[in-house]
Amino acid sequence: MLFFHTTTNLEKLNLIVTKYTSRVHRWISAAATLRGVRQLDFCIYNSRQPIKLPDVLFTCKTLLVLKLEIYTALYVPIEVFLPNLKSLDLLCIWYLNDDSIQRLISSCIMLENLLIGCYGLTDISQFNICHPSLKRLTMIFDSEGLSNTWIVIDAPNLVYLEYNANIAAGYSFRNLHSLLKANIALLPAKDVIQTSDLNFAALAELFRGIANVESLMLGQSSMKHLQCQEPLHLFENLVELKIDPPIIRHREKRNFRLYCKYGDFAYELTLTTITSDH
Asked: What residues contact 238, with CB distance under 8 A and at least 6 apart?
């Protein structure tokens, strides 16, 4: 009862539950309306039904940080407005339709940090991340479902992009002139049997969209996707390249080529990595 009757502002509410009950619903509602919560971390396990969080949560004016980890579908109401939210984490979430995530993101007019980790994009033809103030974007998708999905990013103030997923159907990156650093970890797609099955046109679009970065990190199986292909788009500003190849239990040689530029001099960089179990 003290939770509902005190008037002291609530700095942070951290809820980890196994079932979404009416009591949990009331706690979140009270935190958003009565206690002026600034940060809400909510995690629910073993939920089989879509979660309908209180509508008042999506119009909370005091909320600065919102982290949701729900392992099921998230219902996003039509009316959403989080005017002071700066950091949003959406983990282990199934999205119900094409515009739900965009509606939520666009409502956060002060948003700077966005982390998306989701499942169930099979029926979503276009996944949009469009925001004028966004500075850091991390996208973590499962290894299925992106073969029919286009990834669209329009973020003029974005300085950091992390992409941890398999290759999508296509990419449309707009207004990424502020992007300085990218971390690309291409996961092996379950429907790809051999290298010739990869969507190299989409792969080229992905790297063309980040070609102005100063720092590029390639992790996990990215090197396998890129071996023996045409050189990537010209990286005019690249000053740092980090490669983190996967652990392989047999000796393997891989070639990776990209175009770089130093001043007025353009050149092709060929990297050869050799991995071994010894």
From this structure: 213, 214, 215, 216, 260, 261
